[in-house]
C-alpha cells in the first residue's frame, strides 16, 4: 500500500511539474513573507490551523497555556489539579504525548516523558498561538498523531518602541506581574519580557470520594514561577538572523488528593529549563537557505517527606535532560507556484537521573523531502521523511494533502492521507523497574476530509464554517497501565482506532462602533482499543471525552469590551475502569481601555467558573471553584 501511495503521489507531482514549466520559471516572484515564513508554516497550509485570537491571549495573560487552550480551542486538557499542576494537551482523541509543542519551530516536549507540561508556559508570553490539528508526522516527526501547537514571537520591521507592565491579582492569593519591552526598525526587531507569579491556591472543593461528600480546603498547594523570554531578529542585506532565549523556574507544592480524610501532602516539585537558539535564512536566486541550532536543558526535582515530622525524604528524585538540535533546510522555487524542499536534522539527546541505570544518550538524524504546488484551483503538498535513531528504528513516513477551492470565495475542500509514528520516551524505555527497553514504536495511518465555508454574509453579519472528519489507525499504542500495588508500567496495548468530527462556526457582526463576535466549537470523538486479543477490545481509551463544546461571545463598544465563555466536557474513563464526571464551566470577562498623556492603559476583570462547580479532570485531583481576577496593562 505504501509503494502504491508513493507512486501515485510522485506521478501526480511530476505531471504538475510539467504543467508548471509552461508558466515560465525564469520570472519568479516570491513574496517576502514566504521567505521569512518558517518551514513548518509553509508546508502546513493545507492543514486545519486555528490561530488563537489576540484578545483571548491578552485576557488570559495571567494564566498558563493549558488554561488558554482549555477555554478557547477543541483541545482536551488533562490536569493533575490547577495553578501550576502538571497539565498536558491532547487533540482529536490522542494523548499529550501525541501533541508536539514548538517554540519558534523548536520542539519543547519533555525528552523524558514525551509530553509538554503546559503549566510551565505562560499564555501571554507569545504574539501568536496556533493549533494545527492532526499535524503531519513526516513534517514534524515523532508524536504528532493529535496535532501540534506553535508558539512564536514574530518580528516587526516598522520603526516603533514600547515598554509596559501587566499585573493581575485574583482569588486564592494569586498574583502575576510581567514587564515587557519592544523595539524595531527596518533592520532590527527586539522583544523581551520578565515575569513572576505566585499563588497560595488554598481553594475549597467538594470531595466526592469521601463519605458524605464533605467540603475540604486544599493545603500545601503553593506555586511560584519566574522567568524571562528574549527574542532578537536582524535583517542585514537580506540575511535574516534570529536569536532566542527562554529561562524559567517553577516551584510547586503538590496538594493532597481527594479521598477519605483531609487532603495531606508533603510533596514538592521544582522545574527549571533553559532554551536558546540561533537561526539564519537567506534567499539566493531561486534557492531559500535556512539553518538553525538550538540547545535545551530541563531539570526536575521531586521530593516527598512523607510526614510533618520527617526531616529527611521518603522520595528524592532528580531528572535532567540536555538536547542539541540542528536543522538545515534548502528550498528551490521552480516557479512562484511550485517549490521543492530538502531538510536535514541531527539531534544529540541525553538523560541524566539515578532513576536510570546510568546516564542515557542517543543520536538521531532525519531527512525530509517536501513538495508544494499552488495552481489556481488550490494547494497540493507531498512530504516524505526517514529518521534514524541509535536505539530504535523509526518507519518511513509519507503524506499527501490538498486544499481545493471548490467554489472560489465560497467553499474549500481539505483532504489528507498520511502516516504517523511515536518512538518510546526515555522514561518508557529506561526507568528503573517500570521501564521496558523492548517497547515498540507506535505507527499507523490517518485520514482527514474537511469542508470550509469561507466568510459569507448571513444573519446580518459574516459567518464562517469549518467541518472536519478524521480517522486514525494506530498500531502498538504505548500507555502506562496499573500493575501490582502502586506500580505502573508502560506497555504496547495493541491496535487502536481514533475517529470523529470537529465543527467550528464563527459569526461576526459590526455596526458602527459596536462589534459582536460569536463562536461555537464542537468535537465528537471515539477512541477505542481495536485489538481483538485484548481484554479491553472496543473499550474507550482513558481520559478521552466523547464530546467537547466551546462557546464564546465578545462584545466591543468603543473603549469597553465584555465577553462570556463556556466549555462543556463529557464523562471520561480511567485506566483503572472508573469514571470521571463531565463538567460545564462558564467565565465572564470585562475590560476598559483609555489613553493618558503618558501611557495606554487597559483595566480587566474576569470571573472563572461562574457557577462554582466542583469538578475534577483527572480522578482524585480537585479543581478550583468560582474565582475572581482583576488586572491592569500599561504600555508607555
Distance between the termini: 60 Å
> Number of helix segments?
7
Query: Strand pairing plus helix content: what structural class?
Result: mainly beta
CATH architecture: Beta Barrel
| CATH fold-type name | Maltoporin, Chain A
User: Considering the protein shown, what is the CATH homologous superfamily?
Assistant: TonB-dependent receptor, beta-barrel domain
Shape annotation: globular
Membrane topology: Multi-pass membrane protein
Subcellular location: Cell outer membrane
InterPro entries: Beta-barrel_TonB, Beta-barrel_TonB_sf, Plug_dom, Plug_dom_sf, TonB-dep_rcpt-like
Protein name: TonB-dependent receptor plug domain-containing protein
What's the short version?
By secondary structure, the chain is mainly β. It has a single domain, classed as Maltoporin, Chain A, CATH 2.40.170. It starts with a helix and ends with a strand.
Amino acid at each position: 500500500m505504501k509503494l502504491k501511495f508513493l507512486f501515485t503521489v510522485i506521478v501526480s507531482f511530476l505531471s504538475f511539474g510539467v504543467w508548471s514549466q509552461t508558466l515560465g520559471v525564469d520570472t519568479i516572484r516570491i513574496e517576502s513573507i514566504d521567505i521569512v515564513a518558517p518551514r513548518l508554516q509553509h508546508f502546513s497550509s493545507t492543514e486545519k490551523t486555528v490561530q488563537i485570537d489576540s484578545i483571548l491571549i491578552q485576557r488570559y495573560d495571567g494564566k498558563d497555556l493549558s488554561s488558554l487552550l482549555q477555554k478557547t480551542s477543541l483541545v482536551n486538557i488533562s490536569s493533575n489539579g490547577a495553578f501550576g499542576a502538571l497539565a498536558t494537551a491532547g487533540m482529536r482523541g490522542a494523548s499529550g504525548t501525541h501533541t508536539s509543542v514548538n517554540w519558534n519551530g523548536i520542539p519543547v516536549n519533555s525528552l523524558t516523558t514525551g509530553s509538554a507540561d503546559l503549566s510551565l508556559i505562560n499564555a501571554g508570553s507569545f504574539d501568536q498561538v496556533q493549533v494545527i490539528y492532526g499535524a503531519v508526522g513526516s513534517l514534524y516527526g515523532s508524536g504528532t498523531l493529535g496535532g501540534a501547537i506553535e508558539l512564536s514571537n514574530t518580528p516587526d520591521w516598522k520603526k516603533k518602541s514600547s515598554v509596559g507592565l501587566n499585573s493581575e491579582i485574583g482569588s486564592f492569593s494569586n498574583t502575576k506581574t510581567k514587564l515587557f519591552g519592544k523595539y524595531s526598525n527596518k533592520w532590527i526587531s527586539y522583544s523581551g519580557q520578565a515575569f513572576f507569579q505566585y499563588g497560595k491556591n488554598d481553594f475549597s472543593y467538594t470531595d466526592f470520594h469521601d463519605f458524605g461528600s464533605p467540603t475540604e480546603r486544599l493545603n500545601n498547594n503553593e506555586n511560584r514561577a519566574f522567568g524571562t523570554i528574549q527574542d532578537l531578529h536582524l535583517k542585514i542585506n537580506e540575511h535574516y538572523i534570529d536569536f532566542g532565549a527562554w529561562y524559567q523556574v517553577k516551584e510547586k507544592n503538590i496538594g493532597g488528593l481527594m479521598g477519605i480524610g483531609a487532603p495531606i501532602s508533603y510533596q514538592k516539585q521544582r522545574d527549571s529549563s533553559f532554551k536558546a537558539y540561533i537561526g539564519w535564512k537567506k534567499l539566493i536566486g531561486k534557492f531559500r537557505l535556512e539553518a538553525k541550532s538550538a540547545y535545551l536543558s530541563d531539570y526536575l526535582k521531586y521530593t516527598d517527606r512523607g510526614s510533618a515530622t520527617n526531616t529527611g525524604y521518603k522520595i528524592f528524585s532528580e531528572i535532567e535532560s540536555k538536547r542539541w538540535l540542528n536543522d538545515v533546510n534548502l528550498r528551490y522555487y521552480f516557479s512562484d507556484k511550485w517549490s521543492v524542499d530538502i531538510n536535514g536534522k541531527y539531534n544529540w539527546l541525553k538523560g541524566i537521573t539515578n532513576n536510570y541505570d546510568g546516564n542515557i544518550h542517543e543520536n538521531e538524524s532525519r531527512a525530509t523531502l517536501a513538495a508544494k504546488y499552488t495552481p489556481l484551483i488550490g494547494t497540493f503538498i507531498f512530504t516524505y521523511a526517514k529518521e534514524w535513531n541509535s536505539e530504535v528504528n523509526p518507519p518511513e513516513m509519507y503524506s499527501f494533502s490538498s486544499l481545493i477551492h471548490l467554489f472560489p470565495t465560497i467553499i474549500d475542500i481539505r483532504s489528507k492521507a498520511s502516516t504517523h509514528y511515536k518512538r518510546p520516551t526515555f522514561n518508557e524505555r529506561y526507568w528503573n523497574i517500570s521501564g521496558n527497553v523492548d517497547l515498540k514504536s507506535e505507527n499507523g495511518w490517518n485520514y482527514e476530509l474537511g469542508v470550509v465555508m469561507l466568510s459569507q454574509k448571513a444573519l446580518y453579519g459574516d459567518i464562517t464554517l469549518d467541518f472536519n472528519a478524521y480517522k486514525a489507525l494506530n498500531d502498538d499504542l504505548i500507555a502506562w497501565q496499573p500493575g501490582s500495588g502502586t506500580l505502573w508500567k508502560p506497555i504496547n496495548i495493541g491496535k487502536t482506532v481514533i475517529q470523529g468530527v470537529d465543527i467550528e462556526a464563527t459569526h461576526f457582526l459590526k455596526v458602527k462602533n459596536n462589534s459582536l463576535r460569536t463562536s461555537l466549537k464542537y468535537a465528537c470523538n471515539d477512541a477505542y482499543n481495536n485489538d481483538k486479543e485484548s481484554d479491553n477490545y472496543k473499550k474507550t481509551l482513558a481520559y478521552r471525552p466523547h464530546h467537547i463544546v466551546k462557546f464564546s461571545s465578545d462584545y466591543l463598544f468603543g473603549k469597553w469590551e465584555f465577553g462570556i465563555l463556556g466549555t462543556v466536557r463529557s464523562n471520561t474513563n480511567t485506566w483503572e475502569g472508573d469514571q470521571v464526571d463531565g463538567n460545564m464551566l462558564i467565565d465572564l470577562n470585562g475590560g476598559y481601555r483609555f489613553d493618558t498623556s503618558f501611557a495606554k492603559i487597559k483595566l480587566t476583570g474576569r470571573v472563572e467558573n461562574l457557577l462554582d462547580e466542583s469538578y475534577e479532570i483527572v480522578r482524585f485531583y480537585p479543581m478550583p471553584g468560582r474565582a475572581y481576577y482583576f488586572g491592569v496593562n500599561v504600555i508607555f
